[in-house]
């Protein structure tokens, strides 16, 4: 049985302007990485993640980390 924990509603405002762009980048980047030739995964994945993070993901991660409340 799952035990219900404390739910603390917060407003996450940073993601809004970045959501569509990050979603598109994520779909393209993961598709390219999955189809990478043998031995080329990192050469495709690493620049994708760097671009994804620079395109707003780091700001979203920072906001969520700042608003995270440990329920325990």
Describe the protein in words:
With 72 residues, the chain is an all-alpha fold. The protein has helices spanning 15-34, 41-67. The longest helix has 27 residues, at 41-67. It is elongated and about 45 Å long. The two termini are 18 Å apart. The model has no long low-confidence stretch (mean pLDDT 89).
First-residue to last-residue Cα separation: 18 Å
Q: Poorly predicted ranges (pLDDT <50, ≥5 residues)?
A: none
Helix and strand string, N-terminal first? Answer: HH
- In terms of DSSP E residues, the strand content is under 5%
Question: Kindly state the mean pLDDT as a whole number?
Answer: 89
**Biggest sheet statistics:** none
Report the total helices: 2
- What's the number of extended β-strand segments? 0
Task: Indicate the topology.
Blueprint lengths: L14 H20 L6 H27 L5
Helix pairs in contact: 1-2
Give structural attributes:
72 residues; mainly alpha; 2 helices; 65% helix
Summarize the structure.
The protein is mainly α.
